[in-house]
Every structure is written in structure tokens, then in C-alpha cells.
């Protein structure tokens, strides 16, 4: 950033005093849609952004509409006639006092250009333009008396405003910006988030049924393998009976697996509905200060991408984690029954894995 051009831009746009009144100067967060800025400040900030870009052509649509007469005069002299003196400027304005300084004036009515000429030539050739200038002079004449003493009172007014602002800041905290920092947990949060998730709308019930179905599925898998291993060489068991029992156990385990998946989907739907309803109630009942201090993008992120993770990822990840743990310990149990010496290797490995995860 060009610091010299930056400070010159602030001077040209009459923003120096405004920045002095802000608690953090040009580092002050202005919030969504500039909630803590006046209309004139917003307009001058837009003018400053345009000036800093150093373009060749500037299109200005009534840039003095939201500022007082004195500030408008300062902007015209310093900004348009000074900073933009070497640029091409197309200005739309109702301030006819500034028109004599322009090379060409276009008089418009109902979206059409009636005439285009220098100010004095247009004044002598167009009755409509003459009536417009005279009407403006008559309207502005009644306000001249109020503007005479304005320059004398400006310095004291600014000091009074700044003094009252500083006194107000003493009563309030100076350590916070308008936009609040996003709160989020860091590190291992334990089982608290999962318990909160399962507490939503009979979540524990669906989760328990899904775990039971998975345990039954594992039991069926072990039973199926045990049946085949124990009876494949038994002459008293026919081949038809061997295959039929094996298939029945397999179908039963598949049904338990299907029920587990259905219960997982129901768990996700019910918990998501409950969380989404609570989120909407919180947003609808939040005070307006919450929306001033919370960016709109952060709120949209919560109700879209974050809620999508809660809908799809959390229930399936939770069930798969429980299922994987059940599979590991069931396999270790089978190995311990068949070959108990494997415990000398498996138990230290399980302990080491748990330590590494922590």
C-alpha cells in the first residue's frame, strides 16, 4: 500500500476527523453494511476507494447527496477540482452551484438530454436551465444565515463531539471491536459434543438400537464362521444342511446390518431436525446487536455447511466408530479363545494405539 497516497486520499475526502473519532482509527471494524457509519461517512469512504484506485475515468452519481453543504464544498474543491483535475469526470448532481467549474453541462429531463453546452452558454440559451438555477438560488438564500457562523463553530463542535465520545468510551470497554470473535473449541473436547448430539429428540434410543443391531451382526458373523469351521468336515452334517444354515445366518446378519443403517439414518434426521429448530429459534429471537456484531457469512455457514456435516457426517461417523471398535474387540476375543497366546501381543498393541491417539 502507498502510504503517502493513502493519507492524501483521506485528506481529499475529508475523512481525517472521522477516523480520529473512531475508537481504532482506520482499523475499526465497521460491521455488516456499515452499521456504525453515517450515510455521509459511507459515501466519502466510497469516494476514497475510487480515488485510491487512480483510474482515468470517474462516474460519480450525486456524491454530495448525503453530506452537508460545507462538506460538499470541501469535497468539490479538494476531491473533484483537486485530486481529479487531470481525470475525465462525469458527475450527476443537483448542486447547481458547482456547475460553472465544468467544461460541459448536460440538461436532462425524463431520461433524455435536452441540451449540452458550457454553463454560461446554457444559461443564456435554455429557459429551463435558467429557471432551475434561479429556483436553487431562492431556496439556498434562506439558508445562508445559518451557514455564516458554521466555520467559526466547526472547531468547537468537533472538540465537543470528540470529548463526548471519549467520555462514553471511558464508561464502556475499549478492548472489543464491533465484530465479535468466533468462539470454537480447540483440542480434545471429550464426549460432551456427542452426548449433546445424542440428547436431541430420542437420540440415545436410536443410537442404542443401532449399536445392538451391530453387536448382533458381529455375533452372526462369528457364528457363521464358527458353524462352517466346526461342521465342514463333519460326516453327520449334509452339504445341503451346512449351506442352508450358513445362508440363514448370513441373511440374518445382513438384516441386522440393514436395521443398523436405517436406525443411523433416523438418528441423523431426528437429531438434525431438533438442532435446526433450536438454531432457527435462536436466530429469530436474537437481539439486533447480535446481527450487528456477527458477520452474515458466519451465520450462513452455520445453517448450511456446518449443518450439512451434522446431517450426514456425524451420525454415520459415530456409528462406524462404534462398529469398528466392536469389530476389533470381537476379533481379539475370538483369537483369545482359539489361541490365547496372542494376548501377549494384542494387549500391548491396543494399549500403545490408545496412547498414540491421546
TrEMBL record:
Q: Which InterPro entries match?
A: ABC1_TM_dom, ABC1_TM_sf, ABC_transporter-like_ATP-bd, ABC_transporter_C-like, P-loop_NTPase
Q: Which superkingdom is the protein from? A: Eukaryota
Q: Does the keyword Cytoplasm apply?
A: no
GO molecular function terms listed in the Swiss-Prot or TrEMBL record: ABC-type transporter activity; ATP binding; ATP hydrolysis activity
Keywords from the named record: ATP-binding, Membrane, Nucleotide-binding, Transmembrane, Transmembrane helix, Transport
Q: Which residues form the ABC transmembrane type-1 domain?
A: 209-358
Membrane-spanning segments: 204-224, 244-269, 332-354
Any one GO CC term of this protein is: membrane
Q: Is Transmembrane there in the keyword field?
A: yes
Q: What is this protein called?
A: ABC transmembrane type-1 domain-containing protein
Amino acid at each position: 500500500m502507498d502510504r503517502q497516497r493513502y493519507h492524501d486520499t483521506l485528506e481529499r475526502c475529508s475523512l481525517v476527523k472521522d477516523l480520529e473519532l473512531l475508537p481504532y482509527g482506520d482499523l475499526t471494524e465497521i460491521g455488516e453494511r456499515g452499521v456504525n457509519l453515517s450515510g455521509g461517512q459511507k459515501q466519502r469512504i466510497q469516494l476514497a476507494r475510487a480515488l485510491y484506485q487512480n483510474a482515468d475515468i470517474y462516474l460519480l452519481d450525486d456524491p454530495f447527496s448525503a453530506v452537508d453543504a460545507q462538506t460538499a464544498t470541501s469535497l468539490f474543491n479538494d476531491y473533484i477540482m483537486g485530486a481529479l483535475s487531470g481525470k475525465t469526470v462525469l458527475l450527476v448532481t443537483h448542486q447547481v452551484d458547482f456547475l460553472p467549474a465544468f467544461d460541459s453541462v448536460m440538461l436532462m429531463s425524463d431520461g433524455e438530454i435536452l441540451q449540452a453546452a458550457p454553463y454560461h452558454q446554457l444559461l443564456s440559451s435554455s429557459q429551463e436551465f435558467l429557471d432551475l438555477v434561479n429556483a436553487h438560488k431562492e431556496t439556498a438564500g434562506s439558508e445562508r444565515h445559518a451557514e455564516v457562523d458554521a466555520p467559526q463553530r466547526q472547531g468547537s463542535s468537533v472538540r465537543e463531539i470528540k470529548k463526548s465520545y471519549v467520555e462514553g468510551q471511558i464508561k464502556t470497554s475499549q478492548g472489543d471491536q464491533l465484530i465479535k470473535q468466533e468462539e470454537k473449541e480447540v483440542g480434545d473436547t471429550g464426549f460432551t459434543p456427542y452426548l449433546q448430539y445424542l440428547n436431541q429428540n430420542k437420540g440415545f434410543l436410536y443410537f442404542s438400537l443401532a449399536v445392538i443391531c451391530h453387536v448382533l451382526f458381529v455375533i452372526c458373523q462369528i457364528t457363521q464362521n464358527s458353524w462352517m469351521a466346526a461342521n465342514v468336515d463333519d460326516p453327520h452334517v449334509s452339504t445341503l444342511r451346512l449351506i442352508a444354515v450358513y445362508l440363514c445366518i448370513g441373511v440374518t446378519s445382513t438384516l441386522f446390518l440393514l436395521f443398523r443403517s436405517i436406525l443411523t439414518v433416523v438418528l441423523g434426521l431426528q437429531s438434525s431436525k431438533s438442532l435446526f429448530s433450536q438454531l432457527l429459534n435462536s436466530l429469530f429471537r436474537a437481539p439486533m446487536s447480535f446481527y450487528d456484531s456477527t458477520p452474515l457469512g458466519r451465520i450462513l455457514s452455520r445453517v448450511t455447511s456446518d449443518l450439512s456435516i451434522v446431517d450426514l457426517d456425524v451420525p454415520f461417523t459415530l456409528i462406524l466408530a462404534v462398529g469398528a471398535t466392536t469389530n476389533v474387540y470381537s476379533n481379539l476375543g475370538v483369537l483369545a479363545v482359539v489361541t490365547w497366546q496372542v494376548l501377549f501381543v494384542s494387549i500391548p498393541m491396543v494399549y500403545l494405539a490408545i496412547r498414540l491417539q491421546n
